[in-house]
Design a protein that fits this description.
365 residues; mainly alpha; ABC transporter involved in vitamin B12 uptake, BtuC; 72% helix
C-alpha cells in the first residue's frame, strides 16, 4: 500500500484542513435542507450568533477555552504516540480538585484561591491519567481502552460524590453549594472594565488567558526542549528512542501526566468561571470534542487555538440556530461537529490525492 502523497507544508497545515471543513459544512447544509430550512439562512444565523455581537464572541471564546484545554491534552499524548480518549474523565476529576479548593478556600482572596485551584485541577487530572499511563508503559495495556474505562469510572465517582457527599443540604439537585466569592474567576468584562474598556457581559473569564498560556507552554515544551525532542522520538519510533538512550515507558508516563493535567484545567473555566459550584456532567462532552480540535489543528497549539474557536463558534451559533429555526435543535450542532470529525479524522486524506495532482507531486495517484 502506497504512502499518502506529501503536500507543501502550507497546504498540509492550511489548505487541506480548510477543504475538509468546507466539505463538512456542505454536507451539514444538505442535512439542514432535508429538514426543510435554508442552509444559507442557517449559516447566517450561526455566524451572527457566534460572532455578530460582543456577547456572542464572549460565549464563543468561553466554549473555546474548554476545547483548548482538552485539545492540548490530546495533542501532547499524540506526540508520544498515544491516543488519549480519557480527556472527559480527566477534566471531570480535575474539576473536582479545583472545586474542592473553591469550596474550602472560597472565603479567601482570589490571588490565594486561584493558584491553589489551578494546581489542584492539574494535579487531580494528572493523577487520573497516571494509572492508564502506567498500564500502557509497564503492562502494555492499550491506552485507548483504559482511558475510555476511566471516563466511566470518573462519571460514576462524581455521581456518587455529588449525590451522597458533596450535595448541598436541603436540595435534591446533585450539585454543591455555591463557592465563596473569593473563588470566582474574574470575568473578562470586569477585568477590561478596570482598564476602561466596556465589554458585554458573558461567561468569558481569565481561564481563556490561562488556556492561551498553556498553549504557549506546550509549544515551548514540545518543540523547544530536550524533553519535547524525546517525546517526539518516542512517538515516532520507540526502537530508535531506546537506541538513543531514551526510556519510552518514562516518557509515556510523563506525557500522560501532562495530558491529564491540561484536561484537568477545564474546571477552572467551567466551575470557577461560570457555574460557581460543582455539578453533574459539567465537562459537557468537551473531552471528546478536544479530539476533533487536536486532529483539525494538526496537534499544534496554534492550530488547536483556531480549531477550538471554530468549535466554540459552532456551539454558540447552534444556540442561536435552535432559537430562531424551530425545525432545528441543538443536536444539529452535534451533527456538524460529527461531520467535521469525520472529515478531519477518518476521511482526512480524501482531498490529499487531488491536491497532490494539482501540485504535480509524487504519490498523487
Amino acid at each position: 500500500m502506497s504512502a499518502p502523497a506529501k503536500l507543501p507544508r502550507w497546504a498540509e497545515l492550511g489548505l487541506l484542513p480548510l477543504l475538509n471543513l468546507l466539505a463538512a459544512l456542505v454536507l451539514s447544509g444538505v442535512v439542514v435542507k432535508i429538514l426543510g430550512e435554508s442552509p444559507w439562512v442557517a449559516g447566517q444565523l450561526m455566524l451572527r450568533g457566534a460572532l455578530g455581537s460582543q456577547e456572542g464572541i464572549g460565549y464563543t471564546l468561553y466554549y473555546a477555552t474548554n476545547f483548548m484545554f482538552t485539545g492540548l491534552a490530546v495533542a501532547v499524548a499524540y506526540h508520544a504516540g498515544l491516543f488519549n480518549i480519557g480527556g472527559e474523565g480527566q477534566a471531570y476529576i480535575g474539576g473536582l480538585g479545583s472545586g474542592l479548593v473553591a469550596l474550602w478556600l472560597g472565603h479567601l482572596p482570589f490571588f490565594v484561591v486561584g493558584p491553589c485551584a489551578v494546581f489542584a485541577g492539574a494535579a487531580f487530572g494528572a493523577a487520573w491519567a497516571l494509572v492508564p499511563a502506567w498500564l500502557q508503559a509497564r503492562r502494555g495495556s492499550h491506552i485507548v481502552i483504559t482511558t475510555i474505562m476511566f471516563n466511566f469510572i470518573a462519571a460514576s465517582l462524581m455521581t456518587y460524590l455529588l449525590v451522597n457527599v458533596l450535595i448541598k443540604p436541603g436540595q435534591q439537585s446533585p450539585e454543591t453549594r455555591e463557592f465563596g466569592a473569593g473563588a470566582f474567576m474574574p470575568s473578562a468584562s470586569d477585568v477590561f472594565a478596570k482598564l476602561g474598556v466596556t465589554l458585554a457581559p458573558s461567561p468569558l473569564n481569565l481561564a481563556f488567558f490561562l488556556a492561551l498560556g498553556a498553549a504557549a507552554l506546550v509549544w515551548m515544551l514540545v518543540w523547544r526542549t530536550r524533553w519535547g525532542y524525546a517525546l517526539r522520538v518516542v512517538g515516532q519510533n520507540q526502537d530508535a528512542a531506546v537506541y538513543a538512550g531514551i526510556s519510552p515507558p518514562r516518557v509515556i508516563v510523563q506525557a500522560m501526566l501532562l495530558s491529564g493535567a491540561l484536561a484537568g484545567c477545564l474546571g477552572l473555566n467551567e466551575l470557577l468561571g461560570a457555574q460557581h459550584r460543582i455539578l453533574i456532567d459539567f465537562p459537557g462532552g468537551a473531552g471528546f470534542v478536544g479530539i476533533a480540535v487536536a486532529l483539525m489543528g494538526r496537534n499544534h497549539p496554534f492550530g488547536i487555538f483556531l480549531a477550538a474557536v471554530l468549535f466554540g463558534a459552532l456551539a454558540q451559533g447552534g444556540s442561536q440556530l435552535a432559537f430562531d429555526l424551530p425545525k432545528i435543535n441543538r443536536d444539529m450542532v452535534v451533527v456538524i461537529q460529527g461531520l467535521v470529525i469525520l472529515f478531519c479524522g477518518a476521511l482526512e486524506n480524501v482531498f490529499r490525492a487531488p491536491l497532490a495532482a494539482v501540485f504535480g507531486l509524487k504519490g498523487a495517484k
